[in-house]
Each structure stands twice: as C-alpha cells, then as structure tokens.
Amino acid sequence: MSRLDGRVALVTGAASGLGLACATRFAAEGAQVFGVDLHQPDEWPGARFHVVDVADEDAVARTISDVVQEHGRLDAVCNAAGVAGGGPVHLVPLAEWERVLRVNLTGTFLVCKHAVVPMMDQGSGSIVNFASIEGIEGTEGGSAYNASKGAVVILTKNMAIDYGRRGVRVNCICPGFIETPMFRSVMDNEGMAKYRERYRDEHKLGRFGRPEEIAGAALFLVSDDASFVTGHALVVDGGFTAGMRAGVLEGLGL
Ligand SMILES: NC(=O)c1ccc[n+]([C@@H]2O[C@H](COP(=O)([O-])OP(=O)(O)OC[C@H]3O[C@@H](n4cnc5c(N)ncnc54)[C@H](O)[C@@H]3O)[C@@H](O)[C@H]2O)c1
C-alpha cells in the first residue's frame, strides 16, 4: 500500500519546481492530486489542474469547494506558489513589496483559510506551507521575500495552535537553495552569477538541493508518519543554517 492511498491533495505553485515535484511524488504515493497555478504544465501527473491566482480569494474558494464537492474531502494541502523579489529596503518600490507579499503571504493565507474549513469538518487534514531558510535567517537584500517567508513561519505556528484540537496539522518547510526555475531566475542573473559558488558552499553537503528532496520532506509532513508533528518549521537545507564553515579542517580531509 502506498503512503497516500485514498487521500485528496491540493498543491499550489504546481506547474513548476517544488510544487510540481510535490504533486508528482504525492500522485506516485496514491493521492488524487489537484494542481493550482497561473498556468498549466505540459505534463500534469495529478487528477485535475486549476488555473488560479492564489491571491484571488473568490477563485481560491471556488477551487477548494470544487475539489471537496468532487471527492467529498481534502486531506493535504501544499502551499508552494511563490515569487522571488526584494532588495535593500531603501531601494524597494512599494509595488514590488506588495507583489511579493501578495503571493507569498496573502496567497498562503487565503488557501489556508479556505482549506482548513473542510478539514475541520472531516476532523483531519495536513497543511504544508512553503517558507524558506530566508524566513528564519536574514540574507543580503532579502527584505520583501524574507519578510514574507518569516510571516509564513509564524502563520504556520499560529494555525497549528488554533486547529490542532480539530485534527488539522499545520507545518512549514524551510528549504535551502534548491535548483528550480525560481532558483535559476535569481542565480543566473548577471549580478548574482559570481556569488553562486559562495551560496553553494554554504550548504554543508557541498551542493544545492534537488526538488525531489523537498518533495520527500513534504510527503513526510502530509503522511501519517508525521501524525504527531504540527507547528513545526522543518529546515531542509543541506546544512546551510547549521553554522559557519571556514574550511579549517580541510587539511584533515573534511
Ligand atoms: N527554490 C528554492 O531555492 C526555494 C528555497 C526556499 C523556498 N522556496 C519556496 O518554495 C516555493 C516554490 O518555489 P520554486 O523554487 O519551486 O519556484 P518556481 O518559480 O519554480 O515555482 C513557483 C510557482 O508558483 C507559481 N505562482 C506564482 N505566483 C502565483 C500566483 N499568484 N498564483 C498561483 N501560482 C503562482 C508560479 O507560476 C510557479 O509555477 C516558493 O514559495 C518559494 O518561495 C524555494
């Protein structure tokens, strides 16, 4: 038996990167997976795909209601829709700040708001929000993005407190730098290319992460293996936040 047999899952940001990796893994584990994104991917591993902006409350409410009507339940939600953006605060236009917060924070809030109701009704459910290590530690020029992700961490913990007695678990994942289209859009731009190695080396495993490695963590959190895990910010970062490594032990082969 697969780990998500008979489960109904909704994944946002499902057309790309981490959302698509989660949808693919959940479907392989037996779930009926519904995708949400601004556009449909060429190949969709799940049941149905909804072209929806996660910051549009009516569309989010309608989509979740359609999924629940079709299957009578909603067991797992993965909030992976997100955008990069920021810069040092004095250079960030208000419109840029609002664009990032609108998707990363408001979008996550809206999907949580409408998904948690059917989960409470059925007395079970697991929500996994996508934060970031940049939501628990600062990074240069992080501003809007990092603020949005820090807010997702605390939103997650608050929801865990509010809905635990109703059988709903709420956790978030804080990935390190994972090779996805978003990662490439940041790392491949002209100004960043020369810092790429520095970022890679901060991961103590000596490499960037792969989307499947985040999907594995998401699978754990939505599965019964995590039945006593809620309110947790799970860092999956190849050791990026473990501490400083200067290379002092290189002479010992470490
Ligand atoms: N890749 C990384 O290194 C990394 C690290 C930490 C956290 N994250 C977070 O993980 C999540 C997934 O990132 P990714 O790297 O897969 O990025 P990605 O750009 O590959 O995928 C994000 C998806 O979200 C969708 N999206 C954007 N705005 C949307 C909206 N308004 N409504 C619906 N969908 C929308 C995009 O169309 C895209 O398909 C994001 O929240 C990101 O902030 C990524």
Provide an overview of this structure.
- With 254 residues, this protein is an alpha/beta fold.
- It has one domain: 3-Layer(aba) Sandwich (Rossmann fold), CATH 3.40.50.
- It contains seven helices and seven strands.
- It has a seven-stranded parallel β-sheet, sandwiched between helices.
- The longest helix is centred in the middle third of the chain and has 29 residues, at 94-122.
- It is globular and about 60 Å long.
- Nicotinamide-adenine-dinucleotide (NAD) binds next to helix 1, strand 2, helix 3 and helix 5.
- The site of nicotinamide-adenine-dinucleotide (NAD) has 28 residues, from helix 1, strand 2, helix 3 and helix 5.
Write the layout of secondary structure elements.
Layout (H helix, E strand, L loop, with lengths): L7 E5 L4 H12 L3 E6 L10 E4 L5 H15 L4 E4 L14 H29 L2 E6 L12 H21 L4 E8 L5 H7 L8 H7 L8 H12 L10 E4 L18
Bound molecules: nicotinamide-adenine-dinucleotide.
Keywords:
binds nicotinamide-adenine-dinucleotide, alpha/beta, Rossmann fold, globular
